[in-house]
Write the structure tokens for this entry.
Amino acid sequence: MEIVADELLRRIATKNRLKIWDAGCSTGAEPFTFAIILAERTTMEFMRGVQIFATDIDELQHFRPLIESGIYPYEQLKRIPGELFQKYFIKTNPSDNFQLIPQIHNAVKFYKHNLLSLDKIDYNFDLVICKNVLLHFTANERINVLKMFYQSLNPNGLLVMEQNQKIPVELESFFRQLTPQAQLFGKI
């Protein structure tokens, strides 16, 4: 995701706002991790202009409370390098839970969304992140969801997918891969 952040920041060098859609965000680990990666490369002032729309179908209503609170048990956070953990998490008393600092937590908002509805949650995204979701869809469903992402991106927008996911041949005129090191695509 560092490669993605670097390319994104290079493309928006003159903007003070950043709009990201993390589709299929599950418990929120990915959008919060990406927010931390951005914070490490920018400033907390810049982070005030970052909006990450974290969406998931969340049929059992488990993800919304977790993401909205930004509180996670230490067990889920222990792999975070110590310096980053100390910088971005605050212990909540008396439990063994930790909460993201407001500058990171406030950048991410959760929305319940079914990708197969093909409803765009908004427009003019600088980046769409979709990992570990499309592999659950049929080939036709993947094509339709990727078209929806294409329509949701701004003209200079980026799409990132899981390393084992590829752009279908039918959509090669929509996106071009930007680097062999990541499944990072620019809107054509």
